[in-house]
Amino acid sequence: MTSQKWQAMSAEQRRVWIAERCGWAWFQSPYDDTRNQWAFSGIVRGDAEHGDAREECLNTVDEYGDFVPVVPDYERDLNACAEMVATRNSRTRSNYRARLYVVCGGQAKAVDATAQQRCEAFALAVEPETGE
Question: Per-domain residue ranges for the chain?
Fold first, then answer.
């Protein structure tokens, strides 16, 4: 992923891109096309070897009274960004911090990074440019 590719994506494409890498998946209902929905795998991917994989569930209730997972709006929610980063292993988190410093223009500015800047750094860290 490059900054140019990230910026070329729509806000919804970026949200879906992050959600998929954080364990969300789109499932189609076998019974009713109107009930297709995002579902969370139940286990946040993390570094299980070091004990930071954990269960997570964010739900709301739909018009049928069923629980429906809500995909976070990562680019507008710093709490969602913290959860996003927590899904990665320690090596990727370290790479994320280095990318965040670049995106923000320095380590001191990274402290006040916006959710959008954190999402871009996450994308760059998760899928580093391969030169292809």
Answer: 3-126
Pairwise CA distance, residues 52 & 72, whole Å: 20
**pLDDT tens digits for range 84-108:** 999 899 999 999 999 999 999 999 9
Instruction: Please name which of 74, 86, 58 lies closest in space to residue 119, comparing C-alpha atoms.
Output: 74
Cα 131 to Cα 20: distance, rounded to the nearest angstrom = 23
- Considering only CA atoms, give the Rg of the chain: 16
Residue type, 93: R
Match 């004990």 to its residue by tokens. 51
By C-alpha distance, which of 132, 131, 130, 121 is closest to 3? 121
Whole-prediction pTM value?
0.73
